[in-house]
Design brief:
The chain has about 200 residues and is α/β, with parallel strands linked by helices. The chain has helices at about 55-60, 75-90, 100-115, 120-125, 135-145, 165, 180-195; strands at about 5-15, 25-30, 40-45, 70-75, 95-100, 130. Strand 2 (about 25-30) and strand 3 form a beta hairpin.
Length: about 200
């Protein structure tokens, strides 16, 4: 593939909310061109660290069975494959698109650091530019309030009832699955544009 990708849609699933206690178990990405056309999709199933804490609520939410997953890879192999994917498809660090990117970034940064990569490596593949669909929803709510209009997104979650996917009529995706949430996040961004936000 030529280096024609501009945007990298990312979603992660983990065994809990804390990247130093819990661990990353699934990463999904979509590579998109300047017009947000999908060029490539990729998902990694990552072996859980034996000493990682497992939050039963997180596991119930994402529905991942840690003992029954095909094609699991170790963390170091994931890091190498992720870096290779970005280097092969982007001329410069991608513009990342995510729903609540601080969560995903914290886990990705943690897994790279645990496996011997430093901040320069992380910056090379993730850069400093991102579009966060959750933050955009808060901005649109703020803008509406300032103009004495109804708040368009009272629930800024991607998949909760009444959240962004419902409000923007994004369907046919598997929630709390890394690749499914990538697809929904990309569609939410496109719907923002169509709706004139």
């Amino acid at each position: 593939m030529s280096k024609s990708a501009k945007y990298l849609v990312i979603d992660t699933e983990a065994t809990g909310l804390h990247p130093t206690k819990n661990c990353l178990i699934q990463v999904g990405v979509i590579l998109a061109d300047k017009d947000l056309n999908i060029l490539k999709e990729q998902v990694w199933e990552i072996k859980a660290e034996p000493n990682a804490e497992i939050d039963p609520i997180a596991m119930e939410l994402n529905g991942i069975d840690l003992n029954n997953r095909e094609f699991q890879i170790i963390q170091l192999e994931f890091c190498k494959q992720f870096i290779q994917l970005v280097k092969e498809n982007f001329q410069q660090p991608p513009i990342v698109i995510a729903q609540f990117y601080p969560f995903d970034y914290a886990y990705l940064d943690s897994i790279f650091c645990k496996n011997g990569f430093d901040s320069r490596d992380v910056n090379e593949v993730l850069g400093n530019n991102f579009i966060d669909t959750k933050s955009l929803a808060y901005y649109f709510n703020y803008k509406a309030e300032q103009n004495n209009l109804a708040i368009p997104f009272p629930i800024t979650s991607l998949s909760k009832k009444g959240g962004l996917a419902d409000k923007l009529e994004v369907s046919n995706f598997q929630a709390h699955n890394a690749l499914g949430d990538c697809r929904a996040t990309l569609e939410v961004l496109k719907k923002y544009k169509i709706a004139g936000f």
